[in-house]
C-alpha cells in the first residue's frame, strides 16, 4: 500500500486525487481536491503534519518532510502547501509554508521555517535557507536563492496554468485506471 499509517494517523485525500503506485504517503498528510502525487514521491507526516491544498502537483522523486515539536520550537515545523502549486521533479521541501500559485523548479531545496508568499516562481536548483520569506510576484534563483526580478503577466498566468495542466494530466491517468 502506498498510503500508510503512522501511529493512529492515516492520510486523508480530497476528491479525485491521484497518487501514483510507487509514491509513499504516510501518517498525518492531507490532500485537497484534484491534487496529484507522482512516481517515487515520499511524503512523511510523522513528527508533524503535512497539508497540501487543491489542484497542487508534487512531481517525481520529491521528498516532503517536517520537523518535530520541541521546547525551543513548540510547534516544530509542519509543511503547508497551498492551492495551484507545482512542485517540480526531485525537490526537497522540509518544514516550510508555501502559499498559492507557486512553481518550485526542479531540484529546489526549501528548508525549515521558510515562507513563500502567493505567486512566486523558484528557479530550478535553488536553495532557500531556513526562515527566509520570498515575496509575492518575484522570481528567485540560486543557491542561496536571491530575488532575480519581478514576474511578468505571462509568467504570473503560467503559475496557475501549470497547476491546471497537471489536473488534466492526472485526470488522464485516473481514467486509464
Ligand atoms: C529561472 C528560469 C525561470 C529562467 O528565467 P529567465 O529570466 O528566463 O532566465 P534566462 O534563461 O533568461 O537566464 C538569465 C540568467 O539566469 C541564469 N539562470 C537561468 N535559470 C537559472 C536557475 N534555475 N538558477 C540559476 N541561474 C539560472 C542563466 O544562466 C542566465 O545567466 P547569465 O545572465 O549569466 O547568462 C528557468 O531557468 C527555470 O529555472 N525554470 C524552472 C523550470 C522547472 O523546473 N519547471 C518545473 C518542471 S515541471
Blueprint (SSEs and pairs):
Blueprint: E1 3-4, E2 12-13, E3 18-19, E4 24-31, E5 36-37, E6 42-52, E7 57-58, E8 63-65, E9 79-81, E10 86-87, E11 92-94, E12 97-98, E13 102-104, E14 109-110, E15 115-116, E16 120-122, E17 127-128, E18 133-134, E19 138-142, E20 145-150, H1 153-176
Parallel strand pairs: 1-4, 2-4, 3-5, 4-6, 5-7, 6-8, 6-9, 7-10, 8-11, 9-12, 10-13, 11-14, 12-15, 13-16, 14-17, 15-18, 16-19
Antiparallel strand pairs: 19-20
Coenzyme A (COA) is lined by residues 59, 88, 105-106, 123-125, 141-142.
Key features?
UDP N-Acetylglucosamine Acyltransferase, domain 1, globular, single chain, 8-stranded mixed sheet, binds coenzyme A, 20 strands, mainly beta, 12-stranded parallel sheet, 177 residues, 1 helix
In a few lines, what is going on in this structure?
This protein is mainly β and 177 residues long. 14% of the residues lie in helices and 38% in strands. The chain is built from one helix and 20 strands.
Could you tell me the number of beta strands?
Answer: 20
| Main CATH class | Mainly Beta
Radius of gyration: 15 Å
CATH topological fold name: UDP N-Acetylglucosamine Acyltransferase, domain 1
Please count the helical segments: 1
Structural class by helix and strand composition: mainly beta
What small molecules does the structure contain?
coenzyme A
Organism: Bowmanella dokdonensis
InterPro entries: Hexapep, LbH_gamma_CA-like, Transf_Hexapept/Carb_Anhydrase, Trimer_LpxA-like_sf
Protein name: Gamma carbonic anhydrase family protein
